[in-house]
Write a structure and sequence with these properties.
This protein has two domains: 14-44 and 160-211, Endonuclease Iii, domain 2; 50-154, Orthogonal Bundle (Endonuclease III, domain 1). It has 222 residues and is an all-alpha fold. The two termini are 30 Å apart. It has helices at 14-27, 29-38, 50-58, 64-77, 83-86, 91-96, 101-115, 121-124, 129-136, 144-154, 166-176, 184-191, 198-211. The protein has 13 helices and no strands. Belongs to the alkylbase DNA glycosidase AlkA family. Its EC number is 3.2.2.21. It is an enzyme of class 3 (hydrolase). It comes from Dendronalium phyllosphericum CENA369.
Length: 222
């Protein structure tokens, strides 16, 4: 793995999120209205590392509640949840706790990349976003959405926006009064106005999405 030189990056904290919210409210009255009516969004943070990245893979194209149930069963079975311990599980064990064949393949690939030294998540978190994205996307089953969520909730990068996230698309459509749900390309274009605080805007939109869940059991990246 070839890594670029470490870059200085202001990672998100409660204080920097507060600054970002002020900027966003000034440039987009719709986002400002969310803050006025719902208050500041949660931090939504997870610890960086193998368990979190594996959990995000589980969350691909399924409900977060369903993925969390599988992840909790895994954590009860594998203590501690390390790449080495994960690789001791066979297909039958993983299927029993809810892993699909595809997710088994992806998560094994991640664990093997770490144990072989191909991927060093601790070193990677010190790198710039482009390097992180390039290195993670070399692994089968990890695409832009997975990297975006990892950058946003685990590494706390301030200007990441998961354009492929369904919750963000639904929230943006409702907030902006759009007749159709924006495509990822359209959502990315809308989010351009929110630079360099797009990760804060994403939190605001998730906050808004949850408030409009109409009593449904909906969660985001806790």
């Amino acid at each position: 793995m070839i890594l670029k030189e470490t870059v200085e990056l202001e990672l998100l904290t409660k204080e920097s999120i507060a600054r970002g919210l002020i900027v966003l409210a000034n440039i987009d009255s719709d986002l400002g209205r969310i803050v006025e009516t719902l208050g500041n969004p949660p931090m939504w943070e997870r610890e960086a590392g193998f368990p979190t990245l594996l959990r995000i893979i589980l969350e691909q194209q399924v409900s977060l509640a369903a993925a969390r149930a599988v992840f909790n069963r895994l954590c009860a079975l594998v203590v501690p949840l390390t790449p080495e311990n994960f690789l001791t599980l066979d297909d039958t064990q993983l299927k029993t706790i809810g892993f699909s064949r595809q997710k088994t393949l992806y998560c094994r690939g991640l664990a093997e990349a770490i144990t072989s030294g191909q991927l060093d998540l601790t070193q990677l978190e010190k790198m710039d976003e482009t390097t992180i994205r390039t290195e993670l996307k070399q692994l089968k089953g990890i695409g832009d959405w997975t990297v975006d969520i990892y950058l946003l909730v685990a590494l706390q990068h301030p200007d990441v926006f998961p354009k492929g996230d369904l919750g963000l698309a639904i929230a943006t459509q409702k907030l902006k009064g759009l007749t159709t749900r924006p495509t990822p390309v359209q959502l990315e274009a809308i989010a351009e106005n929110w630079r360099p605080w797009r990760a804060v805007a994403a939190r605001l939109l998730w906050h808004y999405y949850l408030s409009n869940a109409n009593g449904k059991s909906v969660t985001v990246y806790q």
